[in-house]
Amino acid sequence: MLQRIEDYKNQLAREQLLALADESVQELEAGPDGQLVLTEVLVLEHVDRLIKKRLRLPGFRRWTGLHQRLRAAQRQPNHWGLPADLPLERLVGCLEPGDVTATVGGGAAGAAFLLAAHDVEVTALAESVEAAEAIESRAADQALTRHVQVYAVQLGWLPTDLAPAVVVLDPMVFAHQDASAQVRTMASLLEATVRGGLHLVLPVDQRGAVRSLAPEALLNHYSGWQISRGPRSGSRWFVAVKP
Predict the structure, then answer these.
(1) Which end of the chain has fewer CB atoms within 10 angstroms, the N or the C?
(2) Rounded CA gap, 224 and 220, in Å?
(3) How many CA atoms lie within 13 A of 185 on its CB side?
């Protein structure tokens, strides 16, 4: 709720913020405690209360109930528009305390949020600033910013300290990249992944995607890895386990 209030403040122009502060001061002076010295902290607290009222944010007890129901829904693939047969529960079960997870591409944001809903720390790598901002905005709306760190990266060049145990990859991240960028990105991801780590390569919409971006097209990068595919009757994805 505090994050929602701060986000609202950030959307206001300076003149609007000052007007809100003036409104807060007037209400405090008109109240039964108007004789109190108006400190900056007191005014800030009242401004937050005004914003909370404007946004119709619930009280803590009601919010707790709403939050618990939201978290339960967020742990279901269909909440994020993900295929029900994706083995994300298996990935969560494979994680040990302190393990790092990463998602690659804006199309993997749903998987990032599902992992975060299970209290997993996720590094979300986006292919553009716009994609990164979209992920951050939705994470804030879903109260998941605590577990999701978002970075806009140039494909082929990953954070040097990234050593994920689980990677979720959206093949569509390569839609507007040349073959060399795909090779560099995949080589970096494979090398950075810890031994025994897992990669989940997501399915793509076969109606709009070219065949070269289908998950199977990335299989040649996983030479020597243990591969398991999704059911023929379900969505087309595969999991690769690093030796």
Answers:
(1) C
(2) 10
(3) 23
Backbone torsions φ then ψ of 161, nearest 5 degrees: -95, 10
88: which 2 tokens?
Answer: 């994300």
Domain ranges in the chain are: 2-57, 78-241
Residue recorded with tokens 């494909």: 155
pLDDT tens-digit profile of 145-175? Answer: 889 999 988 776 777 688 899 999 998 888 8
Report which secondary-structure segment, H or E, holds 93.
helix 88-94
pLDDT single digits (tens) 159-218: 768 889 999 999 888 887 778 888 888 898 999 999 999 999 998 765 444 544 667 778
In a 3-state reduction of DSSP, which class is residue 189? helix
The CATH superfamily holding the domain 78-241 is Vaccinia Virus protein VP39 (3.40.50.150)
Q: How far apart are CA 179 and CA 189, in angstroms?
A: 15
Nearest alpha carbon to residue 73 among 124, 18, 113? 113
Place of tokens 């990935």: 91
DSSP H or E segment with residue 9: helix 2-11
Which helix (DSSP H) or strand (DSSP E) does residue 135 occupy?
helix 129-141
Which residue, chain included where needed, has tokens 């305390």?
97
